[in-house]
Specification:
about 280 residues; alpha+beta; four-stranded antiparallel sheet; 10 helices; about 70% helix
Length: about 280
Amino acid sequence: MRQKLLLALIWLVTGLVIVLLYNNHQPFGATVEELIWFAIALSVLVLGLPHLKHQLILYAWVIYCGGLLLDLFDDLMGADVMLVNIFDTSLKHLGFLLICYGLHTIIQQKKATITALNKEIARRHELEQQLKFDATHDELTGLGNRRACFEEFESLCTSCTYLYYFDLDNFKLANDRHGHHTGDKILKKVAQAMSRQFSADACFRIGGDEFVAFTQEANLQEDALRAMLLEEVFEYGVGVSIGKAAADPTVDPDTLLHQADLNMYENKASKSIRAKSRQP
């Protein structure tokens, strides 16, 4: 309310002065122009004062208004005063330059603030991506975890033909015999081999030594696949049992995984029977 009253007062006084000049037949053109500019400058100062936090611009605007006031005084009085002639234009120019410098300073500060905010946004985005990755990936192997498998199950079943379920045979024995460091190495090597065969985005570690992979290949040879997965870890005495199920996005993930798991156990059992039959 106070701001509106000040603005109304400024323009009321300006209007009255213009009327007085006109009635007294004073020189009208340049004086009225200076008067209007002075009123505009004061109005801008009144409007910006509540929001103006930069002291330099405030002082610069006051100096600029002072120069306009001296210009107006010179026109109204018609006196050739040396100090007025010297300072009226000088103060306007000085105020204008200081305003420009103050605005430049504010712009630089805002640019620095925006740069800092962009860096913070980028850092937080990177942190969010890392947290999301950590929440959906196995820390040891880098493959997707059980949660990621279920989140992407439908889309992978839509784009792929088969779901493979893998379980490492004798892994606990190898882990106990050679140590946990070797057990971790076995899991990493098998995961790397799976990534090369199926791509990392289609492979998941869903349990201790259990893995799932999706593929479009319909004619994978089980023996060749097993040899490829165990190529770098065969010396530790581990094997791999493989179960397969047709990928179907309309089937519940638990049902499909259970079907592949059952096929994997049939594969494990058949290997055990063949191994016993070869014993003397």
